[in-house]
Amino acid sequence: MSGLKEPEDLQPSEGELRLAGDDDVYDASAWEAATAAVLRKGRRLAEDAPDSDVWSALTRTTLDGIDVAPIGQPSDLDGLTTSGRPTRAGAWDVRTPVQVTDASAANEAVLQDLENGATSLFLRLGADVDLAAALQGVLLDLAPVVLDRPTLDQAAALAAVLEAHDGPLAEGANLSLDPVSDALLGDGEAPADEQVLALVRRAFQLGVRGLVVDGTAVHDRGASDAQELGWAMAVGIHHLRVLAEAGFSPEEAARLVEFRLAATDEQFPTIAKFRAARRLWARVLEVSGASGEMLLHAVTSRPMTSRFDPWVNMLRGTVAAFAAGVGGADSVTVVPFDEPLGQPDAFGRRIARNTSSLLIEESHVAAVADPAGGSYAVERLTDDLAIAAWTELGRIEADGGAAAPAAREGVLARIEEVAAQRDAQVADRSRPLTGVSEFPHLAETLPERPEGLATPVRHYGHAFEAMRDEPAAEPVFLATMGPIAAHTARATFVSNLFAAGGVAVEAAGPTDGVESLVAAYGGQRVACLAGTDAAYAEWGAAAVQALREAGAAYVVLAGKPGPRTNVADDAVDDWAAMGVDALGFLARIREELSR
C-alpha cells in the first residue's frame, strides 16, 4: 500500500533505536557516562570522580535500610529468594470512605458515592449511630460494607444489618475486627477471644469475613514498610491460631481474614510492598497447611497528608492509588484530600473516588495484571522488602507473637526509632513535603470542614505544622543584595524556609549597596542577607555591620559563611543553606522574634 513500508524496510539501521532482545548485550558504562556528565553540571558529582559513582549518588536508602537504585539491571534478579505475582485480574474495587456521625447525612453520602463510581463502602462509625438507617437503600448484595477500626458493638451492629438482609450478600463484606491492632493503638488489652469469636462465627454463617489485619494501625504511628508488613503477618498468624483453636479449618480461617495496608506516594516501594505482602502470606499459608488467595485492601496514607496546602493531597493520593493498583490491591480507598481538616465534604469524596475511576477507566492501569512484574528494580525491591518483613515477623514471634505484651512493646519501640529517623529527614528537608516544608503558602485560605471522626495519626509534617498553627508575630527583614536577577535564587530559598515555620518576610527589593539596603530596613529584630557569593564578598560584611547599627539584633546569612563569601563565621548569628536542620533553625529564629 502506498505510504507504508514493507517489513524488510523496518529493520533498524545503525544508530536507530532498538528494542532489547536476547542478542543484545547489556552495558551500563554508556549510561554511567551520560548520567555523570549531567551530575557534574549540577555539581552533584566531583569532576575527578569516576563515572561509576553515579550509582551511589543517585541510590536512595529506605527507612528499612533497603537501597533503591536509580535504574534496574539484569543482575538485580540474581539471588532472589521469593517469588509470586499479584492475583487480581481487572479493575480493583473502589472502596469509598465515609464518616458516619449522622445516619441521614451518611445515607445521602453513601448512596451518592455508590451511584457515582464507588463499588464498596468503608465506614468509620461514630457513637450511637443507627447503622441500619445509614445503609438504607444500599444494595448489600452488590456493595460490600467494611468497617474502619470498629468496636465490638459496632461490628455487632453491622452483623445485625447483614443478617436482616433478605438474600445473598456481596462478596467482600467484613465485620472488620482486629482486636490485636486495636490493643496496640490503645496500649490496652485486647477483648477476650470468646467475644471476638462469637462475632466471627456470625460472619462465617453469613458467608462474609469477620477479621481484618490492619497494617495501617502501625503505619499511622510511623512504621516503615517492612515493619508494617511484619506486623501484618504476625497479626494474621495470630488470627489463624485463634481460629484453629476454635475449630475452624485452615482454609476456613484464611477465608475469614482480609488485609489492609497503607499506600504512600513513594511509588516503587508501595508497588513492592503490596507484591511482597502476597508472597509473605502465601508462605504463611503454606506453613499452616492452608490454601487460598489473599484479599488485600489498600488505603492511601494518612500520615503523608497535610493540613496546609491540602490540595497537594490530591496528587499524593493519586500516586498512592496508582502504586496500590499496580501492586495488585484488590480494593483501594483514596482518603479524601480534605480529611486532615475535618469531615470530608461531597467534593472531597468525589475527587477521591474519581481518582480510581480515572486510573481504571482512562489510564487503563488495571488492564494488565502485575504490570511491574519482571522489572529488574521492582523484583529486587519486592524481594528485599519481603526478606526485611520476614525478619521483623521473626522478632515479633520471638517475643511471643502479636498478642504478647513484650512483642507489642518491641514493635512500638522499633517504630519509634524509625519515626525519629523520618522526623530527622523531614527536619533537614532531605525528605521534602510540598506545601509544608517546601513551597509553603502563608497567605492561603484553608477550606473549612466540620469536626470529623479523628484517626490517631503521626503526620510526617507534624513539627512544621505545629509552627504554622502559631505563626510568628513579627516578620524577618529580607536584606536582598543587588538586582532581582542576582538575589532571587537565595531570596526564594530562604523565604520558603521561613514560611515553612510560619515566619513572614519583608524584602528590601532591588538594592545597589549598603546605603540603599539600610534605607529599606524597617526596624525588624531579625535580618537575613540574601545575595550572591560575589555580592557577599564585595559588601556583605559592611551590610551586616550597617544593619546591626540600624537596630537588627540577629543577623542571618542565606548561604554559608567563610572564605568564599568573605563573611566570617562570627560576623553573623546564624546561616541557612541546603541541608540545614530547618526545624532547629526556625526554632531559633522564632525565639528571637518573640523577644
Task: Offer a few descriptive terms.
alpha/beta; TIM Barrel; Rossmann fold; eight-stranded parallel β-sheet; 20 helices; disordered N terminus
Commentary on this structure:
The protein is α/β, with parallel strands linked by helices. The protein has 2 domains: 93-414, TIM Barrel (Alpha-Beta Barrel); 470-593, Cobalamin-binding domain (Rossmann fold, 3-Layer(aba) Sandwich), CATH 3.40.50. 44% of the residues lie in helices and 11% in strands. The chain is built from 20 helices and 15 strands. The strands form 3 sheets. It has an 8-stranded parallel beta sheet with strand order 5-4-3-10-9-8-7-6. Strands 12-11-13-14-15 form a 5-stranded parallel beta sheet, sandwiched between helices. The protein has a two-stranded antiparallel sheet with strand order 1-2. Helix 12 (312-326) links the parallel strand 9 and strand 10. The protein is globular, with a radius of gyration of 28 Å. It starts with 28 loop residues before the first helix and ends with a helix.
CATH architecture of the largest domain: Alpha-Beta Barrel
- The CATH topology annotation of the largest domain reads as TIM Barrel
Structural class: alpha/beta
What is the straight-line distance between the termini? 83 Å
Unreliable stretches covering 5 or more consecutive residues? 1-7
